[in-house]
Amino acid sequence: MKFSIIIPTLNEEKTIASCLLPLQALRSNCEIIIVDATDNQPLIDSPHTRLADQTISSKKGRALQMNIGASHASGDILIFLHADTTLPEHALQLIERHLGNKQWGRFDIRLSGNHVMLKVIAWMMNRRSRLTGIATGDQVIFVRREAFSAVGQYPEIALMEDIALSKTLQKISPPICLNAKVTSSGRRWERYGIYRTILLMWSLRLRYFFGADPETLAALYCRGQFWKP
């Protein structure tokens, strides 16, 4: 198998190197594609782009950016990696070993940070994902190229695109839930407060379930607010 790692970025010029450096050992069997939506000092002008195979400028929108990256990818397996997340050791071998006849999957997650509740949150995310078959982008979704095309790629909505993609992919195949853990930044949880962010995320999910506009939900998410974006 050949893999394509697609990284959507927005204002990650200070942190992108920490994302790209651990991926260099994988490049013999993997291409790295950055799709950047930064307006001021875009990454395409950064020296760090030498650590990727392609750096593409895009309009803002994580789903849009990931779809653009997929359209430029040549891999059999697409891996959608957030810029504040790192893969576990031997990630590609684990995917190849366990994917079998399934079409997609995700990793377990741990959240970096000092607060003890971050471990609880990560455990709950992993448990919920196993029970529902829904993956979050932080868990690093990987999918066969053909399956991604068959379901129409990511729906280009402002938020909850990972949930929407998971639901369509479930119609083709249940996900592979790998025990190996990606490490994702707990910065959002610590910035807005652990318990407040838990309530906010459940509130946004519930409102999305009942048909709320993803644009409105995205504005609330970005500001850490419950009402009036």
Automatic annotation (TrEMBL):
GO molecular function, one term: glycosyltransferase activity
Domain Glycosyltransferase 2-like: residue ranges: 4-98
CDD domains: GT_2_like_a (cd02522)
Organism: Methylobacter tundripaludum (strain ATCC BAA-1195 / DSM 17260 / SV96)
Keyword Ribosomal protein found: no
Protein name according to UniProt: Glycosyl transferase family 2
Annotated Gene Ontology cellular component terms: plasma membrane
Localization terms from the record: Cell membrane
Signal peptide (UniProt feature, chain positions): none
Pfam assignment, any one: Glycos_transf_2
InterPro entries per record: Glyco_trans_2-like, Nucleotide-diphossugar_trans, Trfase_2_rSAM/seldom_assoc
Keywords: Cell membrane, Glycosyltransferase, Membrane, Transferase
Keyword Chaperone: no
